[in-house]
Amino acid sequence: MAISIVRTLILYVSIITSMRIMGKRQIGELEPAELVVAVLISELAAQPLQDIGTPLIYGLVPAATLVICELLVSFGIVKSVKFRAFICGKPSVIIKDGQIIQQEMKKSRLTVDELAEQLRKKGVLDYSAVRYAILETDGKITPVLSTMHQPVTPKDMQLAVDEIGYPVIVINEGRVIEKNLQYLGLTPKWLEQQLHARNITSPEDVYVLTVDDFGRIYYALKEAT
Amino acid sequence: MKKELVAVVVLVLMLIASICNYKYIEGITEEVLSLVDRSLEEGERGNWDDARRHGEEAAKLWESYDGYTHIFLRHSEIVDADAVLYHFIEQIYSQNISTAKAAREAARARLEHLVQVEKLRPGSIF
Known about the structure:
The structure holds 2 protein chains of 2 kinds.
Chain A (H helix, E strand, L loop, with lengths): L1 H21 L9 H19 L6 H23 L1 H8 L3 E5 L2 E2 L1 H6 L4 H10 L8 E6 L5 E5 L22 E5 L2 E2 L1 H6 L4 H10 L8 E6 L5 E5 L4
Antiparallel strand pairs in A: 1-2, 1-3, 3-4, 5-6, 5-7, 7-8
Chain B lengths: L1 H44 L2 H17 L1 H7 L2 H19 L3 H22 L3 H4 L1
């Protein structure tokens, strides 16, 4: 029993480390090669976990080899366009000027139902409004609406609007993130003054506080428990 | 680039380690089997005390590599190897040379198989 626990802990740490080395991505964002590696690693880990008669090294060595392969393939993908096309495939245009390119649909083994589903998810119901729909290498479809169907922007309306600033979390569940304060070029003293101006006695009372590039502050106080 | 270089170095080190592992297990099995052979030779000469001594030495030597074998070999393979070695010693104890010869062949086949599966060759890979 204890052996199983220790072996599980070792494999868990190893697999998490492997995944971190490969880079953080969600399952839905994985390229085909990355998905293969992720599935293989989980399979490799499962075998020594279920059978304590199998040395851990039988799971760890192949997993390490796969991580190395993945690192080298990622390097090749970044360095060579041809290699990237070979490993990840190329995006393909499946709708052009409102017309479904059936040849491309067949080639990509994409059904009309799948196309309709993915377009619905993007809020597109009218195929004729689509200027281009591109099937990406991760299997997702990116529709680009024709100019007439694009939402109106402030630029179209010639309106002056405030620019969006990137909000950086400065207080996270009562904890001041000093690193982020430094990143913004702000000081704890400044933060203290801002809290005081909002009648907040301590950062511990704040659930979240963000400051954007323009110094705009958003905050939410902790709810009373 | 640094990360990729480290990856290549680790891969090369793993390959070198696998070759070292093959050589190491080959050395262990050769050592054990030479004691088994000596035990049988003594048995053939009728020196059953020496035959027993060498047979037990072979089993003890195999067990002394326990730390290594349990990390690098499947436990079922270790159990099989233990079984064939003790079966050989059993035949030596019973002073039956013909069954001892058969048991030696079984031990040789079993231990050599452990080496063969580690050897980099098409048969092991596929």
